[in-house]
Amino acid sequence: MVTRASAGLIYFLETRLMPGMEHVSNVPLLVAVRSGLAVTMPLVLLGSLAVLLNSFPLPAYRVFMESVFGPDWRFFGGVIWSSTFAVMSLTMQFSVGTQIAQHYNDENPRNMVSPLIAGLVSFATLLSLIAMESGGLSPRWMGVSGLFVALIVAVTSVKLFLFLYSFPRLRLYLPGGTPDFALPDMFNSLVPAILTVTIFAGGGLIIHALSGTTIHEAFHTLLRRPFDIMGDGFSRGMFYIFSLQSLWFFGIHGANVLDPITHDIYGAAMAANEAAALAGQALPHIMTKPFMDVFVFMGGAGTSISLAFALLLFGETKNQRRLAGISLIPGLFNLNEILLFGLPVILNPVMLVPFVFIPLVLAFISYCAVAWGLVPGTSANVEWTTPVFLNAYLSTGSLSGAVLQLVNLTVGTCLYAPFVLISNRINSRRVDRAFTSLLSRVTTTETQRPNALERGDETGLLARALVPDLEHAFYKEKSIYLEFQPQIAATTGRVSGVEALLRWKHPYYGLIPAPITIALAEGTGLIKPMGLWIFEEACTVREQWLNAGMEDIVLAINVSALQLEENLVKEVVGIMQRHRIPSDILELEVTESTMLGAGTAQSQYLSQLHMLGLRIAIDDFGMGHSSLKYLKQFPVTTVKIDDGISREVVTNPICADIVASITRLCRARGMLCVAEFVENDAQAAVLRTLGVDALQGHIFSPSLAADECFAFIRENNARAAKQENRVRIA
């Protein structure tokens, strides 16, 4: 449980800091950078495993590896490291560049640029700056040491490229008829790309000519300068920790940047302690490199092992807990890149305070424990990859060192907990916004409904994250199911039909709106097997109702335009024959916004299904681009009025007039008219007056499980029959 102090901290953070944190977290540029860092996770994980493979601290492990694989057993791990961590700046440069361009496209759909070209421009820009060193490309700045400069260059170079791209005069027009459709994009980007790389290369050359150093060297020299003028002692140690943590937060490999400080000061302090221990003298230094590694940077920078435990205990999503669980194993060996780039911690405003200041708190606790004689100082050097607890025992020669580590781990976890909870709240709001945006996009009535899976913003990220969950739910968990909502005859009050509605209960997000589920299934091709399953499942239920004597209820089943192919006709016939269901009690609903063109194969297949005796309904009728066209393209038996019209018939006279026009048209053409989303008596009364044939909505019944719907139909129709008898007798 979170302590009372933590609860107070949560309240303070939520009321005072959370609004600002949330605002900063949602800045599009930061979102793009975080996304760019996160997508490199596979390489980060692979690189971490390579480091662990080559640096596992147990001598027995090294003897075993050498006996099995020979003296060059580290070669394979070195190759993996060289292809991941050794080029981390380059891979993240490209990744961040493409993400920034994708976000630009989402905000400027009429002036879109190729994200791949933007990423390559950013990549080339960084290479032009790294190549300023004598001898050509410097491997040092391609890896994690050059990450911060790479992030700055990624943002500024892509922003410059997009700025130049926004000028039409800088784009080279290529007329149609090109052999490759990618050529127009290339020609449009040619001049902005050349100018961007040239400007950055020229700027780097000027800096090199004036100062005799590269941008990377100048930046790192500037960072090291404060330590050169500070004296030795506790304050410098705390400043060292603060600086290292701050550098890591902004994507700079703090340990590499401060490497001279680490070895010249704290490495030398450790050597002095080892010499004193051998001579039987008192240890002269408390703060040494092993002191930092053992008591402060447990699990890596930011005391990441405490963050992992806080996520396991208080993380709201399965993904957070899974990420924490995965990070624990390398975290025991002080490898934390999975959390830094996967959560991510880097450039995450919510994690700024704990990531920087928790190590300072633990350093103070540990310093006091050693100074007061509660724990021995570090007298033996241990490799930084030595597992947690074992490294404390080996370094101090006492179990009290491991106990202090446990205390620090607990304190760190408790201090991280409030920020994890705040992160949960911010993520929850972000998810709500993304769901709202996603729902609005998949239910749009525009001629071309945008594919949410192609977006680069949080809406697109959410959509793509839901896809594997949907596939898993459909194929493995079987958490996709149907509910049935009754349709009430407007004049008699009897149930005249039911609509089969798709439901997906997500283990974290809860009930996913059906339009989102359908849109994701359509975008991934899952709609075809899922659509057949829906038809099969609905017919199974209808067969049970037939066997129970319920013969006159029409069952409406939604069909996507993507399902309308020759194979569907054969499958539908087979399912109806298998369940012995008359075709005239089945109705296929086609959403009006699915754009079935006249004379298309889909329209022909729909006509074939109608010729087999199935009823055809047009859903969401009246708000799209082709409502009336549908009535002449294929036979329609039922029209379902769009909810944007039916909801406002009481308050909006125009909507009432539209409904009246639709009902007159339906009577003239011999079609039924159904109004959905009927939510109150006044709305139902107006719709009846306007001539609607059937009503569907929560005022009558929500969607129900098959057994519950069957019972509702029986009870409702029996009640309606009694009412009819009373009227007849009267």
UniProtKB/TrEMBL annotation:
Per its UniProt record, what CDD domains does this chain match? Answer: EAL (cd01948)
Which molecular function terms from Gene Ontology are attached? Answer: protein-N(PI)-phosphohistidine-sugar phosphotransferase activity
Alphabetized, the UniProt keywords read: Cell membrane, Membrane, Sugar transport, Transmembrane, Transmembrane helix, Transport
Q: Is the keyword Phosphoprotein in the record? A: no
According to the lineage, what is the superkingdom? Bacteria
Q: Which GO terms describe its biological process?
A: phosphoenolpyruvate-dependent sugar phosphotransferase system
Where this protein primarily resides, as one coarse class?
membrane
- Which Gene3D superfamilies does this chain map to? EAL domain
Pfam families given in the database record: EAL (PF00563), PTS_EIIC (PF02378)
- The segment(s) forming the EAL domain are 463-717
Which spans are transmembrane here? 27-53, 73-92, 112-132, 144-167, 187-212, 233-252, 294-314, 326-346, 352-375
Q: Which PROSITE patterns match?
A: EAL, PTS_EIIC_TYPE_3
Q: Name one GO cellular component term.
A: plasma membrane
Read off the InterPro entries from this record. Answer: EAL_dom, EAL_sf, PTS_EIIC, PTS_EIIC_3, PTS_Sugar-EIIC/EIIB
Question: Methyltransferase among the record's keywords?
Answer: no
Query: Which cell locations does it reside in?
Result: Cell membrane
Domain PTS EIIC type-3, which positions?
A: 13-419
Q: How does it sit in the membrane?
A: Multi-pass membrane protein
Show the PANTHER family listed in the entry.
Answer: PTHR33989, PTS SYSTEM N,N'-DIACETYLCHITOBIOSE-SPECIFIC EIIC COMPONENT (PTHR33989:SF4)
Q: What is this protein called?
A: PTS system protein
